[in-house]
Amino acid sequence: QAQLVESGGGLVQAGDSLRLSCAASIEFFSSYNLGWFRQAPGKEREFVAAIDWSGTNDYYGPLLKGRFFISRDNAEKMVYLQMNSLKPEDTAIYYCTGDDNWGQMLAGMNEYWGQGTQVTVSS
């Protein structure tokens, strides 16, 4: 059964950096688009970033490009989210996700989801 397991969350101060990792046990991993969503308390789930199956194309949520960077390692079946200049409003549970359809990936209608990792940014 396919699994996505996130790690790397924690408590940091505003301005710090954090790198999230996601280990994926998905068959045909290299053919899947991968991404990150987040959900803050009392708010709806929000798209953060996605990277296509080839690693060539990436896409970011509003105002995140330039601070957040998504990457993948197909050989290790890993996807990463580098988060820089963190702000208190980045506080949320971050979810790793995968789907073989790019449109579904961006819409959050994805086949696979991890359990999430908490990121808390203090001011």
Overall description:
This protein is 5% helix and 50% strand. By secondary structure, it is mainly beta. The strands form two sheets. Strands 2, 4, 5, 6, 9, 10 and 11 form a seven-stranded mixed sheet that branches. Strands 1-3-8-7 form a four-stranded antiparallel sheet, with no helix packed on it. A hairpin with a 6-residue loop joins strand 4 (33-39) and strand 5 (46-51). The protein is globular, with a radius of gyration of 13 Å. The N and C termini lie far apart (40 Å).
Features:
globular; 123 residues; 5% helix; mainly beta; 11 strands
State the gist of this model.
With 123 residues, the protein is mainly beta.
- Which residues form runs of ≥5 with pLDDT under 50? none
Strand content: over 45%
The Cα radius of gyration reads 13 Å
| Helix percentage range | under 10%
The description of the largest β-sheet is: 7 strands, mixed
SS field, number of helical segments: 1
The ordered H/E elements are: EEEEEEEEEHEE
Break the fold down into its secondary structure elements and pairings.
Layout: E1 3-7, E2 10-13, E3 18-25, E4 33-39, E5 46-51, E6 58-60, E7 68-73, E8 78-83, E9 92-99, H1 102-107, E10 112-113, E11 117-122
Parallel strand pairs: 2-11
Antiparallel strand pairs: 1-3, 3-8, 4-5, 4-9, 5-6, 7-8, 9-10, 9-11
